[in-house]
Amino acid sequence: MVYAALAFAVQALSQQPSPSAQPESEVSVTVTDSTGRRISGAEVTITALSSGVELHQRTNEKGQVVVKLPKDECSITATAAGFTWTKLAKFRVQPPEPIHLFLELHPGEKHTDVD
Hints:
By secondary structure, this protein is mostly beta strands.
């Protein structure tokens, strides 16, 4: 009986969020070309401005990346072969609010900064 109570207590505690766990927001990024066609395989880099830590992801077959991020100010860059790169200089992550970002790439060799 003591073993069952102990096992239940351990299981209950393991399902509780860690006190040091930070709340996160789901951030979805959609990368398109100038016609609105979604670009799969685009390289997306999200940078936490407070620490400089970078997260690199490639868009899926729907042209999307979905990540969970803690509270911070971030920048995001997207690029793909045959397209310019585009940068959103700053966006704010405010958990638990979800964020939906749309980045448009244009054919060519130059880049676009969006403030």
